[in-house]
């Protein structure tokens, strides 16, 4: 006997909460795996990490991991992607009190938001460099590598756009954005490794000094 529309509606009404519960449960399991993987990566590095160890800390069997990720590189990519999303949010929301100020103040606010995110979250910065040996990325598929590179560029786009608003041509804005990124990463690496003490300098003060210099150079 064919089901009436009323019967179908009743089934859909029951199916929706069930589907929502299943989705919520899957998201919770995935988050648990990522939390376990984060601790494994930070303790053992990517090369020393294994799906077996990640599964053990998450309380699952190694086989259960494959319901969510194909390999440890995909897990790494998911962690880095989430980190970059939080970084982008920090830069996007950087204007704050500077929103009504002139463009140079907005540029400084956005650049400092990028710097402070990694200053306050050194493990996120470490995460971004796990798969690099010299200048060669390892372990990621070309698609995942491109996706993560696109996300990183998206975090820097508000800085680049502000440089264009200040009158720079696009090519010059890209060059200056690259320089801001290089200065931030270089100083943060010195800061987190404590090598900055060798020079008796403060990383944030040096970065702010560079931004002052940049502001004077821009017409």
Shape label: globular
Q: How do the strands of the widest beta sheet line up side by side?
A: 1-2
* Protein structure class: mainly alpha
**Which spans have pLDDT < 50 for at least 5 consecutive residues?**
1-13, 131-136
Number of DSSP-assigned strands = 2
Tell me the major beta sheet: 2 strands, antiparallel
CATH class of the largest domain: Mainly Alpha
- Proportion of residues in helical segments: over 70%
CATH fold-type name of the largest domain: Tetracycline Repressor, domain 2
Number of helices: 9
Give helix and strand order, one letter per element, not per position: HHHHHHEEHHH
Give me the CATH superfamily of the largest domain. Tetracycline Repressor, domain 2
Quickly give the CATH architecture of the largest domain.
Orthogonal Bundle
Notes on the structure:
The chain has two domains: 1-69, Arc Repressor Mutant, subunit A (Orthogonal Bundle); 72-219, Tetracycline Repressor, domain 2 (Orthogonal Bundle). 74% of the residues lie in helices and 2% in strands. It has helices at residues 5-48, 51-58, 62-65, 72-92, 103-120, 122-127, 142-165, 170-192, 203-217, and strands spanning 132-133, 136-137. It has a two-stranded antiparallel sheet with strand order 1-2. Strand 1 (132-133) and strand 2 form a beta hairpin. The longest helix has 44 residues, at 5-48.
Throw out a few tags for this protein.
single chain, 219 residues, mainly alpha, Arc Repressor Mutant, subunit A, Tetracycline Repressor, domain 2, 2 domains, two-stranded antiparallel ribbon, 9 helices, 2 strands, 2% strand, disordered N terminus
